[in-house]
Automatic annotation (TrEMBL):
<keyword id="KW-0472">Membrane</keyword>
<feature type="transmembrane region" description="Helical">
    <location>
        <begin position="433"/>
        <end position="451"/>
    </location>
</feature>
<protein>
    <submittedName>
        <fullName>4-amino-4-deoxy-L-arabinose transferase</fullName>
    </submittedName>
</protein>
<feature type="transmembrane region" description="Helical">
    <location>
        <begin position="226"/>
        <end position="250"/>
    </location>
</feature>
<feature type="transmembrane region" description="Helical">
    <location>
        <begin position="103"/>
        <end position="124"/>
    </location>
</feature>
<keyword id="KW-0328">Glycosyltransferase</keyword>
<dbReference type="GO" id="GO:0009103">
    <property type="term" value="P:lipopolysaccharide biosynthetic process"/>
</dbReference>
<dbReference type="InterPro" id="IPR050297">
    <property type="entry name" value="LipidA_mod_glycosyltrf_83"/>
</dbReference>
<dbReference type="GO" id="GO:0005886">
    <property type="term" value="C:plasma membrane"/>
</dbReference>
<keyword id="KW-1003">Cell membrane</keyword>
<feature type="transmembrane region" description="Helical">
    <location>
        <begin position="405"/>
        <end position="427"/>
    </location>
</feature>
<dbReference type="GO" id="GO:0010041">
    <property type="term" value="P:response to iron(III) ion"/>
</dbReference>
<feature type="transmembrane region" description="Helical">
    <location>
        <begin position="321"/>
        <end position="338"/>
    </location>
</feature>
<feature type="domain" description="Glycosyltransferase RgtA/B/C/D-like">
    <location>
        <begin position="82"/>
        <end position="239"/>
    </location>
</feature>
<feature type="transmembrane region" description="Helical">
    <location>
        <begin position="350"/>
        <end position="369"/>
    </location>
</feature>
<feature type="transmembrane region" description="Helical">
    <location>
        <begin position="375"/>
        <end position="393"/>
    </location>
</feature>
<feature type="transmembrane region" description="Helical">
    <location>
        <begin position="157"/>
        <end position="175"/>
    </location>
</feature>
């Protein structure tokens, strides 16, 4: 029997859960999934291409299977995105099936959100019942950063789906010490690596801990099963890494962000240890330096403010996913305390170790990362927060006959309502009634819990409803505002339109800009392999997406990757593969140095500039030499 959180040793045990599901469960789950689908899919096209950088790669993948496989920025396969391509595979296949458009680009991410909510419900329900599962699923759906990322084309949407799928497989493995399910968990994490590299591994400590502690089998067998799961991680992540390593270098694109054109260096360098310890180096090993006119926020070059325990609650991170974080931490501590004398295989403690471990490890890493970090990374934290909160709240509510349980639950509710009030007060002119309404309802529920009103049959539902309003009204309002606001660019942030300027450049984020319509019309009339070339994908992506023609992004994302080389670029021009060179690219964070700078200088010396609209363009078929 599952140990009830609120029951000390002398308390009466709780009755076993009924064998049949209550009638309200299936309609409630259907409503949860339908509501999530509406929230994430409604008016999705307002986000346009989302992040142009990834959209450019998806577009290339609809033209070239090779570009799809490698995650190339263009169908000529010069340079890749600076991430592995799993999310690009899904969006690219959608574009091939339905035609490349904003809808075919973004719908797979929205459906990944619905699937994540459904899988989270199933995972929590199996150990803690349908009530906790529904609360966890609703909590994830109503987390602002989830509504942001599940309506966007960054890799984070599929990362969350794969991590939740891995957790579900661990839960299934725990039931009967199943090797099959544990290996499937490893497969999910391996593909998570192919989506966002080492960030997928942040949940592994929790997965290993819970299985090592709570699986109902011998220690020797548990160790052997964990080794098998580790092998599954290596194989499911390593096949693509090996394919790239074995592919002839001259016949594949440059691995953007790496210093030696390898996936492993990208994983452990720029996208790995560099993110954690602050060695923020991009392609070609150049240090991250913002382009002229871009100012980084106070506190660091990583877009996330000062590193430390308070980062997740700060102005840039707080509104993304921290709404229920204080209560989840209180519930985790209380839950582990109340289950300290439970049997090794206790289901409630296992659930807390799984989701609480996910929460703690991910929160600490995000808090202390010294390299490049974006507030939307917290979407990977959201499942751990809401599942931990739902499990602990459910057990405390079950044991509310005990004053200690009621008191802890009241504390969780109080800190949630107060913290939501603080977060909403950061945008004081936006719907001020919300923060006062949740504070009043939360206070009423806290009083009801402390004075035992919830123990009366007719008052118990009232206290529960007031408590849910106090806990979820703030995050729900912020989530609805997020879904109603258009977001695009490289630094999207959640919340209403008045709050969306927290990142670079407001709703579009840094590095974004509308291409000149005259230049677009010029590119549409080309028939060459590449309509144009421009330094850095931050700008050239807009040209490719608006014109529907391939554009060579010199130097990859930031313009600092050594691809193509000047020699290779000159050969492209000699072969008639590139029609125009468009000036004004961001040479990215490379500052116009390196290969991108060499190519720009060569073009300026050998071709005559012309003004198209407000943009300087060079016709590479008309050399002055």
């Amino acid at each position: 029997m599952t140990t009830t959180l609120s029951a000390p040793e002398h308390a009466q045990p709780q009755p076993p859960a009924p064998a049949r599901k209550p009638r309200w469960v299936n309609p409630s789950v259907a409503a949860l999934l339908l509501g999530t689908g509406v929230l994430y899919l409604w008016d999705l096209a307002k986000n346009g291409w989302g992040n142009d950088f990834y959209a450019m790669a998806v577009q290339a993948g609809t033209w070239s299977w090779k570009a799809l496989f490698f995650g190339s920025l263009d169908p000529g396969n010069v340079v890749t995105v600076d991430k592995p391509p799993f999310s690009l595979w899904v969006m690219g296949l959608s574009g091939r099936l339905f035609g490349f458009s904003s809808w075919s680009l973004l719908v797979p991410d929205a459906l990944a959100g619905v699937a994540s909510v459904g899988l989270l419900y199933l995972a929590v329900r199996r150990l803690s019942g349908p009530g906790a599962g529904l609360l966890a699923g609703a909590g994830l759906a109503l987390t602002p950063v989830a509504a942001l990322m599940f309506r966007f084309d960054n890799p984070d949407a599929f990362l969350v789906l794969l991590l939740v799928a891995g957790a579900y497989c661990v839960v299934r493995a725990l039931e009967h010490a199943s090797t099959k399910w544990l290996v499937l968990a490893g497969v999910a994490i391996g593909f998570g690596f192919l989506d966002k590299m080492l960030q997928a591994f942040l949940v592994l400590p929790a997965f290993v801990l819970v299985y090592a502690v709570a699986a109902p089998t011998s220690l020797r067998r548990r160790i052997g099963q964990l080794c098998a799961a580790a092998g599954a991680v290596v194989v499911s992540a390593g096949w693509w890494v090996a394919a790239v390593a074995l592919w002839p270098v001259a016949d594949r694109p440059y691995i953007s962000g790496s210093t030696d054109n390898t996936v492993l260096e990208l994983a452990f360098g720029y996208n790995g240890l560099g993110r954690i310890f602050g060695e923020g180096r991009g392609g070609g090993g150049r240090t991250f330096t913002p382009p002229a006119g871009m100012e980084l926020p106070a506190g660091g070059r990583g877009f996330g403010g000062q590193a430390g325990l308070t980062r997740l609650f700060g102005g840039e991170f707080g509104g993304e996913a921290s709404w229920l974080l204080p209560a989840a931490l209180v519930g985790l501590v209380a839950g582990l305390w109340f289950t300290r004398r439970a049997p090794r295989t206790d289901r409630t403690r296992a659930a807390l170790l799984l989701w609480g471990g996910w929460l703690v490890v991910t929160a600490l890493v995000l808090s202390y990362m010294s390299g490049i970090i974006h507030p939307y990374y917290t979407v990977a934290l959201a499942p751990g927060i809401v599942a931990t909160l739902a499990i602990s709240a459910r057990e405390l509510w079950r044991g509310r006959a005990n004053f200690t349980a009621r008191a802890v639950l009241a504390v969780m509710l109080a800190v949630t309502a107060v913290w939501a009030f603080v977060l909403l007060a950061r945008t004081p002119d936006w719907q001020p009634w919300v923060r006062y309404a949740l504070l009043v309802s939360g206070a009423a529920a806290v009083v009801g819990l402390l004075f035992g009103a919830d123990r009366f049959r007719r008052l118990s539902p009232v206290v529960a409803v007031l408590g849910l309003c106090g806990a979820l009204l703030g995050t729900t309002a912020f989530t609805l505002a997020t879904a109603a606001t258009a977001h695009s660019g490289g630094q999207p942030s959640s919340g209403p339109a008045v709050a969306s300027g927290r990142g670079f450049g407001g709703p579009r984020g840094f590095g974004a800009g509308e291409p000149d319509t005259a230049v677009i019309d010029l590119l549409k009339g080309t028939t060459t392999k590449w309509a144009a070339a421009q330094s850095g994908a931050m700008q050239s992506a807009g040209l490719a997406l608006a014109s529907g023609r391939p554009v060579l992004a010199i130097g990859g994302f930031s313009g600092s990757d050594p691809a193509p080389t000047l020699t290779r670029f000159r050969q492209y021009v000699a072969d008639g593969d590139i029609r125009y060179y468009v000036a004004g690219g961001r040479g990215g964070f490379g500052g116009g140095r390196g290969t991108a700078g060499e190519i720009q200088a060569w073009v300026e010396q050998n071709f005559t500039p012309m003004s198209v609209g407000g943009t300087t363009v060079y016709d590479l078929t008309k050399s002055v030499v």
